[in-house]
Hints:
By secondary structure, chain B is mainly α. Chain B is built from 13 helices and three strands, in the order E-H-H-H-H-H-H-H-H-H-H-H-H-H-E-E.
Amino acid sequence: xxxxxxxxxxxAAALGSFTSGVQAQEKTKVCFVYVGTKTDGxxxxxxxxGRQELQKAFADKIETPYLESVPEGPDAERAIERMARSGCAxxxxxxxxxxxxxxxxxxxxxxxxxxxxxxxxxxxxxxTYNSRFYEGRYILGQIAAKMSKKGVAGYxxxxxxxxxxxxxxxxxxxxxxxxxxxxxxVVWANTWFDPGKEAxxxxxxxxxxxxxxxxxxxxxxxxxVAAERGIYAFGQASDMIAAGPKTQLTAIVDTWxxxxxxxxxxxxxxxxxxxxxFDGLKDGILTMAPYTxxxxxxxxxxxxxxxxxxSGELHPFTGPIKKQDGxxxxxxxxxxxxxxxxxxxxxxxxxxxxxxx
Amino acid sequence: xxxxxxxxxxxxxxxxxxxPILALVLTxxxxxxxxxxxxxxxxxxLYSFFIEPLLEVWSLHELAIKAAPLILIAVxxxxxxxxxxxxxxxxxxxxxGAICGSMLPILVPQWQSPLVLPLMLVMGAIGGALFAGIxxxxxxxxxxxxxxxxxxxxxxxQLFLDWLVRGPWRDPKGFNFPQSVSFSAxxxxxxxxxxxxxxxxxxxxxxxxVAVWFxxxxxxxxxxVTVLGxxxxxxxxxxxxxxxxxxxxxxxxGACAGLAGISEVSGSIGHLQPSISPGxxxxxxxxxxxxxxxxxxxxxxxxxxxxxxxxxxxxxxxIGVSDKVTRVFQGLLLFFVLxxxxxxLYRIRLIFSxxxxxxxxxxxxx
Amino acid sequence: MLExxxxxxxxxxxxxxxxxxxxxxxxxxxxxxxxxxGMMIMGAVCAFACSYLTGVxxxxxxxxxxxxxxxxLLFGFLTLTLVTNQVATGLALTILGxxxxxxIGESFVGIPGVKLQPIIIPFLSELPFVGRLLFAQDITFxxxxxxxxxxxxxxxxxxxxxxMRAIGDNHGSAHALGINVIRTRYxxxxxxGACAGLAGAQLSLVYTPQWVENxxxxxxxxxxxxxxxxxWRPWRVLAGGYIFGAVGxxxxxxxxxxxxxxxxFLSMLPYAVTIVVLIVxxxxxxxxxxxxxxxxxxxxxxxx
Lengths: 357, 366, 304
């Protein structure tokens, strides 16, 4: 009984003490909603690194609270609304599945600014942002074609959404610019995140005769398999060199920080406007990890391509490009517009897979 | 020292009331210690976990939204478990219900009529029930174990939904993103009040809970469930068919889960998408047992569990703990609630090694 | 290529077999522990942490086993001593395990692990074909096979195993015969935890030598289903684990081969095949009933 009283008293005291902890100064709140945990080693972690860079850049001016592991669906709407109500001035929702939830909450809170990653619905106070991952994938394709002896690469894909299809096509186009006969095998893991399954997919591809691997899933498991089997591979979302010091040729690194800093600065300056941003290599929203484990001429080629993409001289989706069935998609010299890219739903010639319809 | 239990002559009605309170106190204590160890202000943490979500009207609405599917599914499951049928695939039935109910607004969006919504709900319930009929069929015909079949069907349902929204049911104007068309106004489950998002699903859940409670308590069917559940032999002597009970309990729970699924999609999401449930079908199993398989208890446990989700979010934001911490805390809370329930049926004695029984923890008032 | 595919299947099936065997023993003693996923992930994080900190992967295996066993004690204390509901407690254990493992492993994310090296058995490993498949594996594979044999012998040939099955079938009579029901069940629960932990260690040290949150990704649930699939018989666990693993790997090959069926349907195959095989093997109601522990999941309090 005595213990119980002490316990109750302690709890009461604890409950009472919180009121004194109210913050003294007002900082602008820039908030983040994550679909995974911030240490997932992939997509969400890349966003969280961006958040940390942002916090560092405006250390005394802003706070950056975040919510992790928010399921896509009604929970997302609640989580975003909670953020809006808690005084966030700018809210980043960092998964495609948050799109409709973000739209609904943005309509309810016109004074709060929202930015949604990889979606297509925007409004007065809702901007979208996306990264031209395909620019990096084109470079990967070129390197793959140079480094592969068999002329076949394996692609571990997550889900058939336009972004992933676009990546597969860019890779194949890059490879074909070096070796017109280059083939690409695709395995859909139907998950973003299951190291075991990704490893199995990697092994299956290697057993089917590919001698270079690339992935559009989040863990380093495929890189480890490639290292074990002694073939080359490319990293995804973050620099995966630690998982394959002798294996990784390069990686597409998501560097959202630059973008977050740019937009938050606009918010603080009062110049924030709703935009539909589709940034690429030149804006620093994605960067290439150091080119390693390859001869100098391949490296030189990769660097040259990277420079050309940055300067705008080269657009990976420039005609003539044929679709998988041989019909013409782009005439010679025609560049694909962003709308066609963002809704891409077909393979280009050379991809050895059928797209789920 | 060891712990021994002594069965009470009858369930203690005092402890039926005291046990949840005791569990709460223990959880608060353990939580305070945990948050202190993490270097967080325990008062603030516990406040945002348990109190903050209850203070604002919009948050209460959210609580109802979150609790509704949990209660609805758990009520159906309670009948299953009482009749000794182990349906652990409610998540799949939820998904199938959502798919079947969504057929109308997705395949015939041009048909707009007040009939759409009721039909959708009925189709959702039927879809869930039929999907739960698969383990029932296999159990009665081929003698397969329903635990395995219902669990495996969860994965199949989820992949099927995934294929639908990325393939045939994809919104043609949606830039090939994996979503169906948005439901028309006639196909959306309306909100209950002006003040927030809570919609009719919570009403369905409460009605279902009361109806099942009534059935279990006053109707022959409920009696059959209990008798067949505790002893199949006794049930057979009474002339009840265990085969029919398999069908009844599985399809009832499937219908509840299916209704929850279509309500969630129609009321909260507004279209079909690859992920429509953060594991409601599995969490509902805990809710069912936390509510002691009693539909009225399930209402309470459903709200408690929903609160821990909302509270976990609030705590992440206000004191900056990670979602892992909130999950550990949720686990602790469940353990305390479950352990304290022991006191209802048993007395706990601490026995010291010399055989002297002492320190009888009869009640906190001892 | 066949050899490579078989090797992949073995790696995929081993954790399922190990975890399912542990749960099988637990359930034979009459305890239903639905927390396999939680114990597995705890084993994975303990194994990774220990192997990384000491640099000795074998110690990691031990840590995984210990981690799983200790974590299962929590379940044991609640369900056996305090007779809480086993289904709910098991599910709560999984929630706790997922949270706790994430917390423990936070600092290990992104660090490449040390792979557990294979133990190559001299001479036997040089046999054509089967040599590399069966005799040049890591310790978890050998353990998985040894466990099948030992558990089979233990349950059906040894005295203690007989007692354990008696407890699972009728704890009241077993108690009346003077068998210590609670103690035996504690041991069975811990064995289940240790096996789940070992399976977790296989995940973070062999399958994919790294730590990421939630890396068990539902394998604990599959293991649970396999126990039912096997109708509580060890050799059938082995068969079930390999069928499930094989179909999962073969569907990936079918994709890489380009057969043009939507990948979602191929991904359904392991689950669908398991159901179909179960239908085929459970037609005999009597054998299934004989093997189902009658007291599974029921609380036990000794009369005094």
